[in-house]
Amino acid sequence: xxxxVIYPQDWGGTGNYGDIENTGVPVQLSWNMVNELxxxxxxxxxxxHLLVGECENALDGDGTIPxxxxxxxxxxxxxxxxxxxxxxxxxxxDTDNPNYSSFDCDGDDVLNGVDACPxxxxxxxQVDPDGDGCWTDPVVDxxxxxxxxxxxxxxxxxxxxxxxxxxxxxxxIFQLFLLGSGDSIGTATIQLSLTGYxxxxxxxxxxxxxxxxxxxxxxxxxxTEFCQSMNDVPPPSGDEPDAFLxxxxxxxxxxxxxxxxxxxxxx
Length: 267
Prior knowledge:
The chain is an all-beta fold and 267 residues long.
């Protein structure tokens, strides 16, 4: 919007106006009002006649121009829910407002000045994981493992809950251990295919059955994780391993990589 103050001057000696009140008259023009002044070509402006002084329909000092929507000088630009320029956009969402960056247009407690999505409606259940003001539906983790059944235990690759580094030399064979125990219940053979994706074979010792598993692989510690899981694993047939997985979506691994295996197994 445009804000100006008109200071009327005495036109003494002309015989037309004489002495008038010289107090400044504040005027605020909204975009709608300015737009109404444009000719049909949309470029040139008509004159805006503002009456001051003692004449009929003169401005009374509140800055209101008839037909302008009432923004006027009494409207406070620092009020987020006002519409000081009468453009049907509240101050808090109006980029023309000088206080726009300190307002919160979408009410997500992230100020417009740092909000990457300042006009995004926040729907129930949405999350903003990185705090940038862009709210999305939560990512549902479909790669999960069941709770351990009664009489069964949880076993991990090399007995640790984190990632294990796997080399590309030879045929790495790892043990599946109960957490904090040296008792192995089977092995996990991990290797890369010819096109560079991990292939994992789990083979449990005789007397153990694999109920569930969750396996995560990634190229390096800072890269994207790829996960596969299965609950209620069917028993193997004949000489088949207990589980055989190919992470073909990760083609391109060339050096050492990282694997995490969590299993539920029963004696």
